[in-house]
């Protein structure tokens, strides 16, 4: 195997793919990065730890001799990233079990693994399901995934739900049972059988590294245990999270007694200041109390050891019950408001008393909402 390629080209490809390789030593071959060079497919790279797999390619290289090699993914990626921006030459010497890398008058040699032990990605078992614009998938994941649980005894709450309904409606949902983020979109494919699946957060993070803001579509396929996201020169395969996702629609309140709009940037700034107030007990969750009075919103955060913050946000547009107090997890409240701060001047909040879940929305959009469960406090 011999080929020449610009450092920027191979570095971008390696950075994208190598993260799927295993960091564990239980099966050494899974820590490898499979590199193939052929005249018909160009340079392709594959990495997998059997939970997730990434395959990508480029045709921007000069191929002198076809071949295949398996190298340690992390070391290869780190080495390539640190090379100077110049043309790099690769020459495989299987007799010496080395991959020779030349850059200018310098060179390096990397040990190789036995590539015939490397597992193939189970792509032939996949069934195409639907396509979705990259910018829509990227936006939906950025607006929902943060609400998933870091840890939960029900694994489905640690992932993101894709719920495809009749008529081509897709709902993307994440929840840790204390909050829920919900995004809906109508696919071009209206004739589609309803189905759903849950992907792990690691898969979400890898998708967000790859997806761009273009209207170009990405395809999604399924097998019994895996999902695949693919387009042109990129494939991401992931195991699905087992389990039935609860009926999230029942969590979304149907009516409210209080409805108000509030300046998003001002609310975000107030919550940022409330967030730095320490808790008196490390086992307690930091919270902020929201009080509505006539046309004002008052945010209070208290600590016996540090002090108290009380901020008034004026000129609130309130409909319905105006005298209300409700407490929220400060971090959860702020995370939601930050999402809206990037897109709308005012955010809409709906309440039904001090112990019922709140709904937070962009007043001008109906396809995204955030449900936040209040906290019980002694105040």
Describe the model.
The chain has helices at 7-17, 73-81, 134-144, 201-210, 264-275, 330-341, and strands at residues 2-6, 32-38, 42-48, 52-58, 62-65, 67-72, 87-93, 98-103, 106-113, 127-133, 159-165, 169-175, 179-186, 195-200, 217-222, 226-231, 234-239, 258-263, 287-293, 296-303, 307-313, 317-320, 324-329, 346-351, 358-361, 368-372. It has 379 residues and is α+β, with helices and mostly antiparallel strands. The chain has three domains: 2-117, DNA Polymerase III, subunit A, domain 2 (DNA Polymerase III, Chain A, domain 2, Roll), CATH 3.10.150; 126-250, DNA Polymerase III, subunit A, domain 2 (DNA Polymerase III, Chain A, domain 2); 253-372, Roll (DNA Polymerase III, Chain A, domain 2). A hairpin with a 6-residue loop joins strand 24 (346-351) and strand 25.
Report the count of strand segments.
26
The CATH architecture of the largest domain: Roll
Q: Count the DSSP helices.
A: 6
Strand content: 35-45%
For the biggest sheet, the summary is:
13 strands, antiparallel
Overall pLDDT score: 95
Overall outline: elongated
Compact description:
The chain has 379 residues and is α+β, with helices and mostly antiparallel strands. The protein has helices at 7-17, 73-81, 134-144, 201-210, 264-275, 330-341; strands at 2-6, 32-38, 42-48, 52-58, 62-65, 67-72, 87-93, 98-103, 106-113, 127-133, 159-165, 169-175, 179-186, 195-200, 217-222, 226-231, 234-239, 258-263, 287-293, 296-303, 307-313, 317-320, 324-329, 346-351, 358-361, 368-372. Strands 5-1-7-8-9-6-2-3-4-17-16-15-10 form a 13-stranded antiparallel sheet. Strands 14-11-12-13-26-25-24-18-22 form a nine-stranded antiparallel sheet. Strands 21-20-19-23 form a four-stranded antiparallel sheet.
């Amino acid at each position: 195997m011999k080929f020449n390629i610009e450092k920027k080209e191979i570095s971008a490809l390696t950075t994208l793919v190598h993260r799927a390789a295993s960091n564990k030593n239980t099966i050494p071959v899974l820590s490898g990065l499979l590199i193939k060079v052929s005249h018909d497919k160009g340079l392709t790279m594959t990495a997998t730890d059997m939970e997730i797999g990434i395959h990508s390619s480029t045709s921007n290289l000069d191929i002198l001799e076809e071949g295949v090699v398996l190298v340690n993914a992390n070391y290869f990626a780190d080495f390539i990233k640190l090379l100077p921006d110049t043309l790099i030459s690769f020459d495989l010497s299987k007799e010496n079990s080395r991959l020779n890398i030349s850059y200018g008058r310098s060179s390096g040699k990397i040990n190789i693994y036995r590539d015939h032990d490397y597992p193939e990605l189970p792509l032939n078992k996949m069934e195409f399901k639907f396509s979705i614009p990259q910018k829509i998938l990227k936006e939906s994941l950025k607006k929902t995934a943060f609400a998933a649980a870091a840890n939960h005894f029900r694994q489905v709450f640690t992932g993101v739900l894709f719920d495809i309904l009749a008529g081509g409606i897709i709902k993307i949902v994440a929840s840790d049972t204390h909050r829920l983020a919900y995004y809906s979109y109508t696919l071009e494919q209206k004739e589609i059988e309803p189905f759903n699946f849950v992907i792990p957060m690691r898969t979400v993070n890898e998708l967000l590294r790859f997806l761009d803001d273009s209207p170009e579509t990405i395809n999604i396929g399924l097998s019994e245990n895996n999902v695949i996201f693919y387009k042109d020169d990129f494939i991401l395969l992931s195991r699905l999270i087992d389990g039935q996702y609860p009926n999230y629609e029942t969590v979304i309140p149907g009516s409210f007694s209080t409805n108000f709009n509030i300046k998003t940037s001002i609310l975000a700034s107030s919550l940022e200041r409330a967030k730095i107030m320490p808790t008196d007990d490390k086992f307690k969750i930091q919270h902020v109390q929201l009080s509505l009075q006539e046309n004002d919103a008052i945010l209070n955060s208290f600590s016996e050891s540090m002090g108290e913050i009380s901020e008034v946000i004026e000129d609130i547009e309130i409909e319905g019950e105006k005298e209300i107090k409700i407490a929220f997890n400060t971090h959860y409240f702020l995370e939601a408001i930050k999402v809206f701060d990037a897109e709308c001047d005012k955010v809409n909040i709906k309440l039904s008393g001090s112990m019922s879940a709140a709904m937070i929305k962009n007043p001008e959009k109906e396809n995204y909402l955030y449900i936040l469960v209040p906290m019980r406090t002694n105040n």
